[in-house]
Amino acid sequence: MKPSKAAASHLILKKSTRYQKWGQADFTIPPELDGHPLRDEYIETVRFLFSTYAESLDPVKNLILGKSPRRDNESDEAYDRRIRSQYVDRCRFILPAAANANVGMTANARVIEMVIRKMLSHPLAEVRQIGEKMKEVAKAETPTLVKYADAVPYVVETIKELNMESGGKPPKSQEQAPVLHGWCDLIDYDKDGEKKSSPRLCTASMKHPLLTRWRI
Questions:
Q1: In this predicted structure, what is the pLDDT of residue 20?
Q2: Model confidence pTM above 0.85
Q3: Measured distance between the N- and C-terminal CA atoms of the chain, rounded to whole angstroms
Q4: Hey, which of 10, 131, 176, 181 has its CA 20 to 30 A from 190?
Q5: What span, in angstroms and rounded, lies between the C-alpha atoms of 122 and 150?
């Protein structure tokens, strides 16, 4: 399957942006933008990022070549692979989350069933579409295990509620969830907790100078 990087981040294994190059049309248009007034602007912006990415590859490659000379007895293939990982790695941060990615996954039927349920419950339409395709393919191999793999209402509603609590809004295609108040209250906390925890995060040794400084 070829989801976007945004969708692939919720999956298992994905195509690395460090070693691969992208073409001008290797991106996904989210289903949420169908009929949306910003759809054309979105496509224009993504294409601009892709063209900037393509135009940056050769200049960055030449810069890397000047700073990374060939090693003794290094083959053309090995040298190209080493240089490629550096200049493509620098340029990949220009790519948007809409850039397509290849995803591979190894799992048994029960894991597939669980993954399908999670994907069908996901707020991102692209992930739900991939879940539907996975279910369709899996039914041909293990029909009894995945035929009842559907969206989990509890997960769907919980995601909506957490999104609303964090100040976000649910997608227009999904039913508006009620805003919950007072569902979580901070009763007490250690005012010196940051001072106590910071030194321990910096070192595993209780004799470190930081610990003495903070008198822990």
A1: 67
A2: no
A3: 53
A4: 181
A5: 11
